[in-house]
Design goal:
The complex is a heterodimer. Helix content of chain A is 70%, strand content 0%. Chain A is mainly alpha-helical. In chain B, 21% of the residues lie in helices and 30% in strands. Classes of the chains: A mainly alpha, B alpha+beta.
């Protein structure tokens, strides 16, 4: 392409932004991996997506007063889009990943049922019940109407109630 | 139900969900990759400079409103200028990746950053329904984001395939004003492995690059990129061609012809692009934004009760990459049909028509009857494009339907495309 694209002089990362990203990483990384795990169902995928999210958030450091909020939204978006991109090779990679942690039987059964929900219901339940967000905030984060999110939560819980019935 | 409370109808289930999510979160293994992250940033900035645009998956305006952020004037200003860059994955320890091409994008015009510039065919709706004997049971909408898979727009995509041996060519192009390209883009495929980077390659007198690699269990790919500037000297075009079962020289010739057309100020004509014999060419598809929508239809076979889903999305932009891990099974009338084999969940995909259509959604979390490749292909072949009235008649009676799919006249128009 245009030579400008390749002409940038080596500069190295901006030291201040680099430090601030490192601080953000130490503060938020674990929580973001957990959130991504719940959204994607794969801890290995969660690691990769959160890593990517931090790379993206670096560009906003110093430009927003709440990089944590930006980070969370980026993680949610990446997890959502990951569903769309997830092809055979991604599943192949995930099969090579370590097994997911064992849970008590009741919770393990519930986790499997949650993973079997349609993606949009699962996303709504995770954001509502894991992050404890209001429905309006879940809707804003997912870019969906509030009514749709309410419906997703209601239907998700109904489906789980039926699935988990003794 | 209100915005603040757990739905009253299922309090026990809600409590169980809370406890389960908390337990899974607690048990989630967390690996400290801070050093790797910082190394990636250093490598990226050495390559393209530290000042790049914001993450295009997040709209700063939305962020401010939705999350009650203080004003982010600088972000908003950057968004208003439609300047978007792409991060470049450069960490040596990162998951296997190929990063090709560099260019930044200024998004022109007054568009709102979404939507495909449609080039629909004779029927023009993009609505596809199953064959006779199936009843639609639900229709939902979703969105897709090309940016998260390494793409950026304005962009164009073109596909050609040779059904005789499954050879495949996918050309992707981004457009950017010359001089605005202060950043590196990675046209990244995070699932490409075994990369190898030979020396720079000549593409009709232009400096190009090439990489060979393969998907994990898939067939080898050859990638070539190069750029050209339009006759006004103001707009640059950067194109990446990916080929499977095609010689490097043939890919270079195709790319060269594409860029020749751009230098002359012409739109590349699929029929004029050189390819070996036997290739079927789809139309060139263009988009001005990275975000788009999809419509997912679930239908039940009347005779058996079996359920199958198909997903429709604006042609050529989002699902084309699925072809890289699929086996081409047919190509005719400007469309290419491919099937993801029996290695995992089966998916059949057709691109080149008025919509890209995928059967047997690979999205996890969606429980649905299993398909084998034959059934997926049969369902795909049975889908037919219908006029707006026919679409609405079939969908209106279904149990769970997103109202947006009833108010828009086609897959390409508001409210689905944001106008």
């Amino acid at each position: 392409m245009p030579t400008e694209a390749h002409a940038a002089a080596p500069t190295g990362a901006d030291p201040d932004r680099r430090d601030r990203l490192a601080a953000l990483y130490r503060e938020e990384h674990a929580d973001m991996v957990r959130l991504a795990h719940l959204l994607t169902g794969s801890s290995a995928t969660a690691e990769d997506l959160v890593h990517e999210a931090f790379l993206r958030v670096y560009d906003t450091i110093g430009r927003t007063e709440r990089p944590g909020a930006y980070l969370r939204r980026t993680v949610v978006n990446l997890c959502h889009s990951h569903h769309r991109r997830r092809g055979v090779e991604a599943r192949w990679r995930e099969r090579q990943a370590p097994p997911e942690p064992a849970l008590p039987p009741e919770l393990d059964e519930t986790w499997r049922a949650i993973q079997a929900l349609p993606t949009h219901q699962r996303e709504a339940l995770v954001l509502r019940f894991h992050l404890d967000l209001k429905v309006a905030d879940v809707a804003a984060l997912l870019g969906r109407p509030v009514g749709t999110v309410k419906s997703d939560i209601h239907r998700g819980l109904a489906a789980l109630t039926e699935e988990l019935a003794p | 139900m209100n915005d603040h409370e757990t739905p009253d109808a299922f309090p026990d289930t809600a409590d169980r969900v809370r406890r389960t999510l908390a337990a899974v979160a607690t048990a989630t293994p967390v690996v400290d990759r801070e050093g790797e992250l910082l190394a990636a940033l250093d490598a990226r900035d050495r390559r393209s400079g530290p000042d790049r645009a914001i993450d295009a998956t997040v709209d700063p305006d939305e962020l401010e409103v939705d999350l009650d952020l203080p004003p982010v004037d600088e972000l908003a200003a950057r968004r208003a200028s439609r300047k978007r860059g792409r991060w470049l994955l450069a960490a040596a320890a990162a998951v296997v990746a190929v990063a090709l091409v560099g260019v930044a994008v200024v998004r022109g015009g007054s568009d709102d950053g979404t939507g495909v510039i449609a080039e629909p065919g004779p029927v023009d709706t993009g609505w596809f329904l199953p064959a006779e004997g199936w009843t639609v049971t639900s229709v939902r909408t979703d969105w897709l984001d090309r940016e998260t898979s390494g793409g950026t727009c304005p962009c164009a995509t073109w596909v050609a395939a040779r059904p005789a041996d499954g050879a495949l060519v996918i050309l992707t192009e981004v457009t950017a004003p010359v001089g605005e390209g202060d950043d590196g883009i990675g046209l990244i495929d995070p699932y490409l492995v075994d990369e190898r980077r030979p020396d720079p390659i000549d593409v009709g007198g232009r400096a190009g690059r090439t990489v060979e690699g393969s998907f994990g269990p898939g067939a080898p790919l050859t990638l070539v990129d190069a750029g050209a500037v339009g006759p006004d000297g103001a707009v640059g075009h950067f194109a990446l061609v990916r080929g499977r079962g095609v010689e490097l020289d043939d890919l270079v010739a195709t790319l060269d012809a594409w860029l020749d057309a751009r230098e002359a100020g012409d739109a590349p004509a699929p029929e004029a692009l050189p390819l070996p014999d036997g290739f079927v060419r789809t139309p060139v598809r263009t988009a001005d934004g990275t975000f788009g929508h999809a419509v997912v239809v679930r239908a039940r076979e009347d005779a058996t009760g079996r359920e199958v889903e198909h997903r429709m999305s604006p042609a050529g932009i989002w699902d084309t990459d699925l072809l890289l891990s699929a086996d081409v099974v047919a190509a005719d009338d400007g469309t290419v049909t491919a099937v993801l084999g029996e290695r995992d969940a089966v998916t059949a995909i057709r691109v080149g028509g008025d919509a890209d259509v995928v059967v047997g959604d690979p999205f996890f979390g969606d429980e649905i009857d299993e398909l084998d490749s034959e059934a997926a292909r049969a369902h795909l072949d049975g889908l037919r494009e219908v006029p707006t009235a026919g679409w609405r008649a079939a969908v209106e009676g279904a149990g769970d339907v997103d109202p947006d799919v009833l108010s828009g006249p086609s897959l390409y128009e508001a409210p689905l495309s944001d106008g």
